[in-house]
Design goal:
Dihydrodipicolinate Reductase, domain 2, 11-stranded mixed β-sheet, NAD(P)-bd_dom_sf, nucleotide binding
Length: about 375
């Protein structure tokens, strides 16, 4: 995309809390503009646009259809409940809108395939909104993991993603809802009066998505051969997962574990162990500071005499960042969209592949949970 090309015009489907952060990112990115927002309530969409920096010329719609039918919208960001992704993402793709899709991207890989096929058949760029993947720190950490002299061969990974949800969240948030009655049946074509599973994967889909992505990232996206839930998850009264853990294993004996929860103090850790080095980061999902991110590495260390210390000591690394990670995300997405729109480039297929692998692992862990903690083979 040429530097003087017009900015990519974003439409947003829905007014979820995370959409506020992405709206800010679209405003801050040099190659994007907020062009439209749609909600089932025109009043809600109007208030969202007014409070989140939408320019005066932005379109406001009282429906999701209004955004995807708008011929001037280049791309849509979809932060809707997971159960609605397959419907609205496919409809958006059929209207030739490039797709930035909030995670978890689908309830299962079958639904994700429908989304990816719609994007591919229409020549559209797809990307999931896993923001930490686009932070400059992530690139530097990956360089360390790829260094055979400093890190060696991967042996194990452990990832966590947890936070203590408020009582209000645990009672009302869509991520803990399952069954019941809701007007969403009008949008989804479900059985009259019965609400579909909005985000029925619970913590596994929400916080667990980050853990699985971190593990795949550290293993250079090599799919594990199997997944095993480590213990019976914690459920709420509706049967939605509030906390769970799992292990993953590979043919070459690499291993990984993760823990995700809505009931545990904030934790966003990755520990990656190699034959020659290790990496640790304590805030990989959301850095403690927006413009400064840290990680620790250790290479070729051993005990000093009498085993009273290390030599050499671990190194603390600081990455300074002028733009928030979500700005880097929308900027890169828009660059790919612009290359298609203005230069007749092909969509970048890395992001669909990574999303699919993440979903495959999530599905396998869920199956292991449902099957009494039995190992589940992961087939690519």
């Amino acid at each position: 995309m040429a530097e003087d090309a017009p900015p990519i015009r974003f439409g947003i489907l829905g007014c979820a809390e995370v959409a506020r952060k992405v709206s800010r990112a679209i405003t801050l990115s040099p190659n994007t503009t907020l062009y439209a927002v749609g909600s089932r309530s025109l009043d809600k969409a109007t208030k969202f646009a007014a409070s989140n920096g939408f320019p005066p010329h932005a379109k406001v719609y009282g429906s999701y259809e209004g955004v995807i039918e708008d011929p001037e919208v280049d791309a849509v960001y979809v932060p809707l409940p997971t159960s609605l992704h397959v419907q609205w993402a496919v409809l958006a793709a059929q209207k030739k809108k490039h797709l930035l899709l909030e995670k978890p991207v689908a309830l299962n890989v079958h639904d994700l395939h429908k989304i990816l096929e719609a994007c591919e058949s229409n020549g559209l760029q797809y990307m999931d909104a896993t923001m930490w993947m686009h932070h400059p720190r992530t690139t530097q950490m990956f360089h360390f993991l790829s260094d055979p002299q400093q890190f060696g061969h991967l042996q194990s990974v452990h990832a966590t993603s947890t936070y203590t949800a408020s009582p209000y969240f645990l009672e009302n948030d869509i991520r803990v809802k399952h069954g019941g009655k809701c007007p969403l049946m009008v949008l989804t074509g479900s059985v009259p009066g019965v609400k579909p599973d909005l985000d029925a994967l619970g913590a596994l889909g929400d916080t667990g998505w980050y853990c699985v992505r971190a593990i795949l990232w550290a293993s250079k996206y090599e799919l594990p051969k199997s997944a095993t839930a480590l213990h019976k998850p914690t459920y709420n009264d509706a049967g939605v997962i509030l906390a769970c853990a799992a292990s993953l294993s590979w043919e070459d004996d690499k291993v990984a574990t993760f823990y995700c929860s809505f009931l545990t103090n904030v934790s966003m850790d990755i520990i990656v162990m190699g034959t020659k080095g290790s990496l640790r980061v304590h805030d990989y999902i959301i850095p403690n500071q927006e413009k400064e991110a840290k990680f620790s590495t250790s290479s070729n260390s051993n005990w000093v005499e009498l085993s009273i210390g290390w030599a050499p000591n671990p190194s603390d690394n600081v990455v300074y960042n002028d733009l928030p990670q979500e700005v880097h995300m929308v900027k890169e997405f828009a660059r790919l969209v612009g290359a298609i729109k203005y230069n007749n480039s092909k969509p970048e297929d890395t992001w669909p592949v990574i999303s699919r692998k993440t979903q495959l692992v999530i599905d396998a862990v869920k199956t292991s949970i449902d099957n009494g903690l039995e190992p589940v083979e992961i087939k690519g």
